[in-house]
Amino acid sequence: MKNNLKYDVKDLKLAGEGKLKIEWAGRQMQVLEKIKTRFKKEKPLKGLTLAACLHITSETANLLIALKEGGATVVANASNPLSTQDVVAASLVKDYDIPTFAVRGEDNKTYFQHLNAVLDAKPNITMDDGGDLIYALHTKRSELLKNIIGSSEETTTGVIRLKAMEKEGALKLPVIAVNDSDTKHLFDNRYGTGQSTIDGLLRATNILIAGKTFVVGGYGWCSRGIAMRAKGMGADVIVTEVDPIRALEAAMDGFRVMTMKDATKFGDIFVSATGDKHVISLDVVKLMKDGAIVANSGHFDVEIDMAGIEKLKTKKRRVRNNLDEYTFPNGKKIFVAGEGRLVNLAAAEGHPAEVMDMSFANQALAAEYLVDNKGKLKNKVYTLPRDLDVNVAKIKLDAMGISIDKLTKEQSKYLSSWDEGTS
Questions:
Q1: What is the DSSP code (8-state) at residue 179?
Q2: Which fold would CATH assign to domain 12-184+351-399?
Q3: pTM given for the model
Q4: Fewest CB atoms within 10 Å of the CB: 62, 127, 248, 367?
């Protein structure tokens, strides 16, 4: 480790365990490994500084290492106070010389200090999970915008914020919405969030899912994954929605669909994953059964009205790791997992490495794409080109030992023509 390396982690003595976690995750990330090998040879990011505000996990560490192999100077901070794996943060600093500013459980003041610390590196590219770096660049640190080639965004919540900025004409740099790549949202959001949310709930509560009524807020890709996994474990699943098409799809997929307030008559477990605010409002919480369990799998801790719950409570106590019991004036108790933050990262370890492999391959390719197209992109939100997305899928299939058919010349011609049909 370099003596002058700036960082803020819990304890560098934790690095040994962190390095093992990073290496284990790396074994499951064959797509990113292939990109890292090419990056090491070609150095597409040479001379650039990249600031990443991401969940500091073993999977993220492998992305940061790949970016560094590509020639970039990489600095990182946590995108959520409860998602940091302290052992990984320590290893990034000690073993990989990557300045990291992340301590699990850090308060809001420290969180924003860490945001500013990575921006102090005067990055040329930023990489976000939730849009906080871009928000800081457009508000408190706008003098740095002149240095920025572009940014990329990992999650649905961040993309929502960025598209709102673009619509209002407030966005001052090009952004790649990595979340919108098919090899990201169709897999990471659905299978990753589905499995890791259940994992977080089980670690926080150790309850039996089978036989419970499980209420899922929303039916986007993340919520679909949660509903699918809960149903597979024997739960009676209810879906709530505001979008008529998604609500209809949920019904056709075999789930009960109703309003959130109506769902309180039945629900034992409530999980929201929409990217919106107060999906589980205080009015909803007041209607829940005694003993209901509440969790959030959206990026920010706004999906549950935690401020309202805190104000209404007469008593609060920590009954298990990452599980708080709230008692209300009428004596009813509800249980909140992971302080209302991302339950899969607050109470568990986040998505499995195999699925993050594709997401972070897209992130690495997005950084390279921004460099290759420097000065050519407008200040808007872009999707990573389809050919790069397809290539990620091809590499993943190859790593899984799966072969697929190829179109014959005759089939390709037929699909591209209009003058052949019924004979």
A1: G
A2: Rossmann fold (3.40.50)
A3: 0.88
A4: 248
